[in-house]
Design brief:
Number of helices: 14
Oligomer: single chain
Structural class: alpha/beta
Mean pLDDT: 85
Distance between the termini: 32 Å
Strand order of the largest sheet: 5-2-1-6-9-13-12
Length: 330
């Protein structure tokens, strides 16, 4: 089976955050192993020259190629990491070297999609790539991003935001979430979910947010409960009572409750509600389905029940959630 190659270019420059550079390749490298279609990614680190680059952590990284050498290649995804300096008052300031900004603008012109990690959003903004778009960055520099670039609609809450072919991510560790989202967009959420499990992390869907995410992917130590969790998601529109779940798992009601509390930290009822909210979130983000249809398809029965669950779990309403987190490309 042939491998579909997608060139991922990560921009290197002095002072860059180390995890921003090393995190994404780790995620993309798992795609070959987890994807049935054997779709692969070629990840390269690109810099102005082939000299070692010293990251903000003091670790030196060797580039794979130079910006000039990429001129003849088609780029699938450009990842722009960030860099900061801290002043004597311990205030954080993002770095936007004019040379790096110019290179990013140049590369973006022949890239299918452009992404930033953490304060890399400041570089995208300086290159004019975020004008008229909603974007996120690390919470500590969000106000500065808004002040410096009034044409950008800054939202500091989401872990990442997609606006067409431009994606922005929040804090440093969000490079992993963002990479999973890109893979989900390419290969489907099933592949991304498998990779998330390998990394022992939650799957953050490419929905432009995640701070409301319900931890549905906490791994169970019991195969029976793991199977039951998947049964719940496959039958989310059904009643899924405690008796139904216990019967499916071939154990008693009380034993099932004890296992859920021990392994997942919640009762079966609470887990089912969390799962219903999680699925409803995805449908509110990516479809135009009415609240009545979302409530019915997710097993809530009525809109009132849906609203109460959202208020209880997310401290918001389904309508407000959709208004705020509707996927830009949907």
């Amino acid at each position: 089976m042939s491998t579909v190659s997608r060139l991922i270019v990560i921009v290197l420059f002095d002072g860059v955050d180390l995890l921003d550079v090393t995190g994404p390749p780790e995620v993309f490298s798992l795609a070959r192993r987890e994807s049935e279609e054997a779709a692969g990614y070629e990840v390269v680190l690109a810099a102005e020259t082939m000299d070692p680059v010293t990251t903000g952590a003091g670790v030196r990284v060797l580039p794979d190629t130079t910006f000039d050498d990429l001129s003849a290649r088609s780029i699938d995804t450009l990842i722009v990491p960030g860099a900061v300096e801290v002043d004597h008052r311990r205030r954080v300031h993002p770095l936007t070297d004019p040379g790096v900004v110019a290179r990013v603008k140049q590369l973006a012109g022949r890239t299918r999609r452009v992404t930033s990690v953490c304060v890399g959003a400041h570089i995208l903004a300086a290159a004019g790539l975020l004008d008229g778009k909603r974007a996120t960055t690390h919470w500590s520099t969000a106000q500065q991003l808004a002040d410096d670039y009034p044409a950008v609609e800054v939202d500091a809450d989401p872990i990442f935001i997609r606006q067409g072919d431009v994606w922005t991510g929040a804090g440093i560790s969000a490079c992993l979430d963002l990479s999973l989202a890109l893979i989900a967009d390419d290969l489907g959420e099933g592949v991304a979910l498998n990779i998330a499990r390998q990394l022992v992390m939650y799957l953050k869907r490419p929905s432009g947010q995640s701070q409301f995410s319900v931890p549905l992917e906490r791994v169970s130590m019991t195969r029976r409960i793991e199977d039951l969790r998947h049964h719940i998601l496959r039958n989310i529109g059904e009643p899924l009572t405690l008796a139904d779940l216990a019967a499916h798992a071939h154990i008693g009601d009380r034993q099932l409750t004890r296992i859920f509390k021990a392994e997942l930290g919640m009762t079966p009822h609470a887990y089912v509600e969390s799962a219903r909210v999680e699925v409803a979130r995805g449908r509110l983000e990516s479809t135009d389905a009415t609240l009545e249809r979302v409530a019915a398809s997710c097993g809530f029965g009525t809109v009132d029940t849906l609203v109460r669950a959202f208020r209880r779990r997310l401290d918001t309403t389904p309508t407000e959630y959709r208004r705020r987190f509707r996927t830009g490309g949907a």
